[in-house]
């Protein structure tokens, strides 16, 4: 029995892939340079790591669930853990991005809080009893000085901070 499977991808047209894929499963499809989207041109399903490993391209993030902040810090997916941890807050230290010196690292964790910020995440975590932001985060930074609005949403702070850290991260380089 032959089964052909058509996947709908971002371009809102169907493409044919050469293997049977479970319904609802998200896959990475190598589109190649041929723009023919008819079933005459069959595409390959490739590993999710393929764009980053083969082309050095960003291909989205992975999600890990932790029920408290110490779980975020300690249950790293890397067996050697994180070698540098940064907390972000409007109460953090203000250092202009061009003057921020980060150590070289292999696995950097940048933490963002929710509605009530990281300080409340620390207070709520029984493993971090009596600790303050500066105990948990050796580096606690305000990445948007003179923010103007009373508060910045996490999803806004994320983009602002990634831009802020881009140059310091590039200068720090990767630890061997
Ligand atoms: C709604 S804000 C939390 C505000 C909260 N009052 C606090 O004490 O941080 C959500 C998250 O956005 C990030 N954030 C907001 N403003 C920031 C700033 N000026 N610098 C760095 N991070 C900021 C922090 O990670 C914060 O936990
Ligand atoms: C903290 O979070 C970790 C990871 O999710 C979990 O294993 C642990 O039970 C949590 N501890 C408490 C006290 O909630």
Automatic annotation (TrEMBL):
One Pfam entry for this protein is: Methyltrn_RNA_3
Under InterPro entries, the record lists: Alpha/beta_knot_MTases (IPR029028), Put_MeTrfase-C9orf114-like (IPR003750), tRNA_m1G_MTases_N (IPR029026)
PANTHER family in the record: CLASS IV SAM-BINDING METHYLTRANSFERASE-RELATED, METHYLTRANSFERASE C9ORF114-RELATED
Which family, according to UniProt? Belongs to the class IV-like SAM-binding methyltransferase superfamily.
Write the protein's name.
tRNA/rRNA methyltransferase SpoU type domain-containing protein
Species of provenance: Aegilops tauschii subsp. strangulata
């Amino acid at each position: 029995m032959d089964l052909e499977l058509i996947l709908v991808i971002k371009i809102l047209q169907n493409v044919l892939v050469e293997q049977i894929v479970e319904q609802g499963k998200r896959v990475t499809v190598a589109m190649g340079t041929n723009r023919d989207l008819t079933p005459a041109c069959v595409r390959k399903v490739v590993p999710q790591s393929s764009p980053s490993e083969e082309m050095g391209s960003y291909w989205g993030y992975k999600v890990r669930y932790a029920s408290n902040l110490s779980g975020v810090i300690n249950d790293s997916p890397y067996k050697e853990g994180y070698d540098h941890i940064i907390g972000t807050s409007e109460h953090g230290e203000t250092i202009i991005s061009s003057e921020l010196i980060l150590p070289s690292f292999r696995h950097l964790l940048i933490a963002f809080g929710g509605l009530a910020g990281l300080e409340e995440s620390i207070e709520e975590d029984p493993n971090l009893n009596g600790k303050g932001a500066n105990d948990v985060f050796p580096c606690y930074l305000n990445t948007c000085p003179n923010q103007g609005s009373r508060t910045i949403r996490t999803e806004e702070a994320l983009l602002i901070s990634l831009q802020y850290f881009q140059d310091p991260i590039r200068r720090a380089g990767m630890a061997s």
